[in-house]
Every structure is written in structure tokens, then in C-alpha cells.
Design brief:
CATH topology: Alpha-Beta Plaits
Structural class: alpha+beta
Helix content: 25-40%
CATH superfamily: Dimeric alpha+beta barrel
Largest sheet: 4 strands, antiparallel
Number of domains: 1
Length: 97
């Protein structure tokens, strides 16, 4: 299944906290990308945070994955998860078989 994981910073980091956490956050996120769990990622333009397109077997698995990221584990970020799939109503535009 595919999921959009919308991450929001809920507690600003101090410069010291940023120096401590980000050297762990970035490699952990890149590892998830390289293993295919995170397929694409973006920075949010409306508020501090990220958007991941993820592949997982269930919403529970996707939640478990993002909860291991250092910003989330330390309580600085939360994620909302949305399952997504093909735009099924487009089938109505295809000729009947």
C-alpha cells in the first residue's frame, strides 16, 4: 500500500537540539529511502515539516516506521498518515469490455 505521511513540527528545536538530532534524522530518513520504504520526500511550504510518499503493508506499519525517526521519537514531529491508491473512477472513462 501507498501512504502520504504528512509530518509537522509540533515543538521547535533549539540550536543545540538541532545539532544533536539532525545528524541522526538525515541518515535514518535516507536509509528508509534507499530501502524503498520512503519513495519520495518533500519539505512542506506551508509550515515546518515534511511529506513522505511511503510504501508499507498497513497504516500501523507506516506509523511504526515514522515513529522511529529521531524527531518523532523525541516528540518534535508528529505524522498524519493517509492511504492512497489509483484514481479508480477513471475506469468509467474506459470502454466497457
Amino acid at each position: 500500500m501507498k501512504f502520504f505521511a504528512i509530518g509537522s513540527i509540533v515543538k521547535p528545536l533549539t540550536p543545540e537540539q538541532r545539532q544533536e538530532i539532525m545528524p541522526k534524522e538525515v541518515p535514518d530518513t535516507l536509509s528508509l529511502y534507499l530501502e524503498g520504504t520512503i519513495e519520495q520526500f518533500w519539505f512542506r511550504q506551508d509550515t515546518p515539516g515534511v511529506v513522505f510518499l511511503m510504501s508499507a503493508d498497513s497504516v500501523e506499519q507506516a506509523k511504526a516506521v515514522v515513529s522511529t525517526l529521531p524527531l518523532t521519537a523525541a516528540g518534535f514531529m508528529t505524522f498524519d498518515l493517509f492511504p492512497v491508491g489509483p484514481l479508480a473512477p477513471l475506469r468509467l472513462l474506459l470502454p466497457a469490455k
